[in-house]
Write a structure and sequence with these properties.
The complex is a heterodimer.
Chain A lengths: L1 H21 L3 H21 L3 H26 L14 H20 L2 H4 L18 H10 L2 H22 L10 H11 L1
Helix pairs in contact in A: 1-2, 2-3
Chain B lengths: L4 H21 L3 H25 L4 H30 L14
Classes of the chains: A mainly alpha, B mainly alpha.
C-alpha cells in the first residue's frame, strides 16, 4: 500500500512537472502545476506531515495558482509561445545543465560529508507518536524558530507593499486627473 | 516493497532538475515562475524526507519559511510582470533585455 501510494504520487508529480515545462499554453502549465503540488501534498501525508499537507493544498494549490491564473487572464497571455531559439544552443545547453544538476544533487545526498550523517540510505524510521502534528510543529516554530518566524511577518508586509507599489499605475494622468495623482502617490508610499 | 528515504530524495532531485531545465529553456516569464515553484517544492519534499529520516521536526518548520518566501516572491514577481506588461506587449524574457523602462 505504501509503495503503491508513493509510486502513484510520484508519477503524478513527475508528469505534472514535465507538463509545466512542455505545455505550450500557459493555462495548461498552471493546471499541470496544480497536479504536481497536490501530488507533493500526498507525499507529505505519507511522511506524517499532515499539517504541511493541508498548508500545501491551501496556500500553494489554492492561493498561489489562483494568483497565477488571475495574472494570466488579466494579461491575456493564453496564446502560444513561438518555438524558435533566439539564443543559439539554448535548449541543448539547458537540458545538459539540468541533467548535471540532478546528478550532482543525487551524488550529494548519497555522500556522508554532505549530510553529516552516517548514511541516508537507511529506511525511514518509525516516527514517534505525534511526530509532525500541529502541536509538535507549532512548538518548534514558536520556540526554536521564534525569531525567524517574527521576521517572516516583516517579509510579508514588505511583499505586500512592494506588490502594491509595483503594480500601481505610476505615470500621472493615466486615468485620473493629474492634480489628484500627486497626493495619492505620496500616500501609497 | 519498502519505501526508503532515498526514494523521496531521488524523486525530489528529479523534480528539481525538471524545474531547472524549464527555467533555462522556457522564455515565457510566467512559466519560468512556475518552474521556480516546482524547484521550491522539490526542496520542501527533501526537507520533509530528511525530517522524517532524522526524526527532527525542525525540517518541517523550515518548510513554513519556504512557503512564506514563495508567497512573497510570487506577489512581488507577478506585480513586476504586470508592470512590464503595461509598457510592452511580449510575455517572453527576451523582451526585457533593455535596462530601462
Amino acid at each position: 500500500m505504501e509503495a503503491f501510494v508513493f509510486f502513484a504520487a510520484a508519477a503524478i508529480l513527475l508528469g505534472g512537472a514535465l507538463g509545466v515545462v512542455l505545455a505550450r499554453n500557459t493555462v495548461h502549465s498552471a493546471l499541470f502545476l496544480v497536479g504536481a503540488l497536490i501530488a507533493v501534498a500526498v507525499l507529505f501525508v505519507q511522511q506524517q506531515a499532515h499539517l504541511l499537507a493541508a498548508v500545501q493544498v491551501i496556500v500553494y494549490a489554492g492561493a498561489v495558482v489562483v494568483l497565477f491564473l488571475f495574472v494570466i487572464m488579466l494579461l491575456g497571455v493564453d496564446d502560444y509561445e513561438s518555438l524558435e531559439e533566439t539564443i543559439p544552443f539554448q535548449r541543448p545547453a539547458g537540458i545538459v545543465l539540468g541533467v548535471a544538476a540532478v546528478v550532482a544533487v543525487i551524488a550529494l545526498a548519497g555522500n556522508t560529508w554532505a549530510t553529516g550523517r552516517p548514511s541516508v540510505r537507511g529506511s525511514l524510521t518509525g516516527p514517534a507518536s505525534g511526530f509532525g502534528n500541529v502541536e509538535a510543529v507549532g512548538r518548534e516554530l514558536f520556540t526554536t524558530f521564534l525569531w525567524p518566524f517574527e521576521l517572516t511577518a516583516v517579509l510579508l508586509v514588505l511583499a505586500v507593499v512592494g506588490g502594491v507599489v509595483l503594480a500601481r499605475r505610476s505615470h500621472p494622468g493615466a486615468g485620473d486627473a493629474p492634480d489628484a495623482s500627486a497626493p495619492r502617490s505620496e500616500g501609497a508610499e | 516493497m519498502r519505501i526508503t528515504g532515498a526514494y523521496y530524495l531521488v524523486l525530489a532531485a528529479l523534480v528539481f532538475g525538471i524545474g531547472a531545465v524549464g527555467l533555462l529553456v522556457r522564455r515565457n516569464v510566467l512559466v519560468m515562475f512556475m518552474c521556480v515553484e516546482l524547484m521550491l517544492n522539490a526542496v520542501t519534499l527533501t526537507f520533509v524526507a530528511f525530517s522524517r529520516m532524522l526524526d527532527d521536526v525542525g525540517g518541517q518548520a523550515i518548510v513554513f519559511f519556504v512557503l512564506v518566501v514563495a508567497a512573497a516572491e510570487v506577489a512581488v514577481g507577478l506585480a513586476i510582470i504586470v508592470a512590464i506588461f503595461r509598457r510592452r506587449e511580449g510575455a517572453t524574457a527576451d523582451d526585457v533585455h533593455l535596462l530601462k523602462g
